[in-house]
Inverse folding.
């Protein structure tokens, strides 16, 4: 099973600041990584797939990068509505499909 | 626009079987991969498995011995059965769609339904 590790667990950031979230895979997953945003009481929402392809309608301030075992989700200028938990998910080697433990982004 | 909606009992007794259904609007059930994912309170996401219209299934090895998924095209629904439940199975259960076996991410989700396992 591929273990996905996200860091940090929680991030507190001021509006307008740049945010960088990390996701690491226990072995190489090529570019087969997706990022999701989950707001309280809601289902996760797909932001990025293929490590860097943004879903239609997702603001351009969200970007993904990385390959192999190390990946990053960047929010270039944090907005208040970006307060959420962000999850990464690998789909390179499965079953099982696996998610990271999540990073909570809070607004200062 | 395709929508997913979970339904089923919110309370299940220990050792019994959890049964949930997911309704797929707009008649798209004949394509795609239909999944169940759960999230224990305050925890992360756990993939349970999928069923394809062809009848093919694939389950998380950690749950495989207790999971059965089925699909009813006439009702545009797919279902989850998880037997011998314990308190550890208490979670919000989401149904979700994946587009293809190669690009296996979830682009559409139901709102989720909380299932509590308690006597």
């Amino acid at each position: 099973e591929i273990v996905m590790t996200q860091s940090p667990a929680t991030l507190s950031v001021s509006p307008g600041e740049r945010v960088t979230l990390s996701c690491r895979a226990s072995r190489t997953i090529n570019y087969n990584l997706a990022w999701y945003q989950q707001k309280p009481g809601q289902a996760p929402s797909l932001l990025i797939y293929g490590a860097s392809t943004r879903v239609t309608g997702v603001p351009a301030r969200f970007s993904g990068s990385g390959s192999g075992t190390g990946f990053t989700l960047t929010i270039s200028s944090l907005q208040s509505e970006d307060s959420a938990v962000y999850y990464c998910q690998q789909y390179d080697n499965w079953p099982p499909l696996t998610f990271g433990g999540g990073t909570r982004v809070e607004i200062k | 626009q395709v929508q997913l909606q979970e339904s089923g009992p919110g309370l299940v007794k220990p050792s019994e079987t959890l049964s949930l259904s997911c309704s797929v609007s707009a008649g798209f059930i004949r394509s795609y991969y239909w999944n169940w994912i759960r999230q224990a309170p305050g925890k992360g996401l756990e993939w349970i498995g999928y069923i394809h219209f062809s009848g093919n299934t694939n389950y998380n090895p950690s749950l495989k011995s207790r999971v059965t998924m089925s699909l009813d095209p006439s009702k545009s629904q797919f279902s989850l059965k998880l037997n011998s439940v314990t308190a550890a199975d208490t979670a919000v259960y989401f149904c979700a769609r994946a587009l293809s076996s190669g690009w296996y991410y979830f682009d559409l989700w139901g709102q989720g339904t909380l299932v509590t396992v308690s006597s």
In short: The two ends of chain B are 39 Å apart (CA to CA). Chain B touches chain A through 21 residues (CB under 8 Å). The CA atoms of residues 33 and 101 of chain B lie 8 Å apart. The first strand of chain B starts at residue 4 and ends at 7.
